[in-house]
Amino acid sequence: MKILVFNEEKKLDAYVGETICDFIRQHDQATIGFATGSTPLGVYQYFIDSYQNHKVSFQNVQAFNLDEYVGLKPEHPRSFASAMKNELFSHIDILPENIHALDGSKEDMDEECQRYETLIEQNPIDIQILGIGMDGHIAYNEPGSPLDGACHVVNLHQESIESSLDYGFDHIEDVPTQGVTQGIGTIMKAKQLIMMAKGEKKADLVKRMIYGEVTSDFPSSIIQRHPNVIVCLDQEAASQLKEEDYEKR
Ligand code: GLP
Predict the structure, then answer these.
(1) Residue 118: beta bridge partners?
(2) 36 lines ligand 1 (CB under 6 A)
(3) What does each C-alpha distance from 120 to 34, 135, 178 come to in angstroms?
(4) Best label site of 20, 33, 75, 134, fewest CB within 10 Å?
(5) What is the pTM of this model?
């Protein structure tokens, strides 16, 4: 595991953005997994700027979203599909047919999960961007999720429901109580993981993710078992790590 700690947020975003842009430029086809949440927004702005400055094209990119709320149609303004569209996809030249997501509004969610799992098996993800939730979740794999799980529906924990207020819901009663997510097993099949965390509030979580026991009680700890993972942190999120364990940027 490579751990990089950046003294400026802009440098962190540029590093992750450029790593992925480089990969896209060097391959005829690139399959990238995207996360929602506030943490990767600077990376998405980096992609938009790079596209607008003709430094990269996304026409050869297949995009896979990590997770979604159950009960919201993709076009609902608070869905993760809408968030990805507004924050990134509508500003770059990615082809609409190459944007893939779980649809949380399907009547048969088991069938929808199977469809998405199969699609990912057929289009293995080259680089998966990840963030960490306040209860240690990755995507919407809440504590207790099986470490080898496939796409599935989850009951969101109270912490995740409360965090959703940061994503534009006005009232807690408006937040769906279920999510649908790539499983930990699905995520672990990605060829490379880029885990990002920013801010003091993530410091304890980052410590447990990196030094703690690998356990389904703390799903992000699974990244310790991935053969190709880069953890990109700001100084606040890295504040509980030993300096000898990371590279300063
Ligand atoms: C959300 C999403 C995750 C995201 C995480 C961190 O609930 N389901 O995919 O990575 O929680 O969010 P943030 O970056 O806003 O802290």
Answers:
(1) none
(2) yes
(3) 13, 26, 22
(4) 75
(5) 0.95
